[in-house]
Amino acid sequence: MFVGHYAAAFAAKAVEPKAPVWTLVAGCQLVDIGWSVFIMTGIERARVDPSLPGSSLVLEHMPWTHSLPMTFVWSIGAALLALALLRLPLWASIVIGLSVASHWLLDLLVHRPDLELWFGGEKLGLGLWNYPVPEQAVEMGLLAVCGAAWVATRKQLGAAAWPAIALIGFLVALQIAAMSSPTPEGPAGVAVGASALAVYLVVVALAALTELRLKRAA
């Protein structure tokens, strides 16, 4: 799953408007941000197999980012950082932590069995990636529904809808670009990790921009 993860951020923003949207956008992809760094450094491993349907990634070894135990660690860590460093309210910090945890659950739907239940243990994945059309429908559907909820919340707060709509449109364009830009076969190394990390950080920056007018009006 790629842009479908951001649906969790938008749903969380609709539930808790006090959580800055950039923190939720970073949170829902936090483990993939970590994965990008670990792929570049060789701590985790993946390779690209263009013959596979849907995602061409074969995620061989990623216990530090995508195992269930580490999901709890990343989630709790994000909530504590939001509480201590950003000084957000307790509930807003908890919602950020939950947005991090959502990543594993959404990945469970689409990944082939590569998500460890414990370190070195059984791997799970329902494999929706093997059915590209339904998988894309799920991602886009989640993004549309949760994005609409976020837009509605912005309107209730007196903020313009267009920045949120523009960000959602950008995410749709990203998904289309990812689908139509095949990655060369072989180990996923620095180039794959760096390009993924750049995309994640750009989306976080754009999410922060959507709240500039809201902050000025507050």
Strand order of the largest sheet: 2-1-5
How does the major sheet shape up?
3 strands, antiparallel
How much helix is in the residues?
Answer: 55-70%
Q: Note the beta-strand portion.
A: 5-15%
> Mean pLDDT, nearest integer?
94
Cα-atom Rg, whole angstroms? 17 Å
Structural class: mainly alpha
Number of strands: 5
Work out the helix count: 10
Number of structural units classed as domains: 1
Order of helices and strands: HHHEEHHHEEHHEHH
How far do the termini sit from each other?
Answer: 35 Å
- Overall, the morphology is globular
Low-confidence stretches: none
Structure description:
The protein is mainly alpha-helical. 66% of the residues lie in helices and 7% in strands. It contains ten helices and five strands. The mean pLDDT is 94. The chain has one domain. The strands form two sheets. Strands 2-1-5 form a three-stranded antiparallel sheet, with no helix packed on it. The protein has helices at 5-15, 21-28, 30-41, 63-66, 68-84, 90-110, 132-156, 162-180, 190-209, 212-217; strands at residues 45-48, 57-61, 115-116, 123-124, 186-187. Helix 7 (132-156) packs antiparallel against helix 8.
Task: Characterize this entry briefly.
The chain has 218 residues and is mostly helical. The chain has helices at residues 5-15, 21-28, 30-41, 63-66, 68-84, 90-110, 132-156, 162-180, 190-209, 212-217, and strands spanning 45-48, 57-61, 115-116, 123-124, 186-187. It has one domain (5-210).
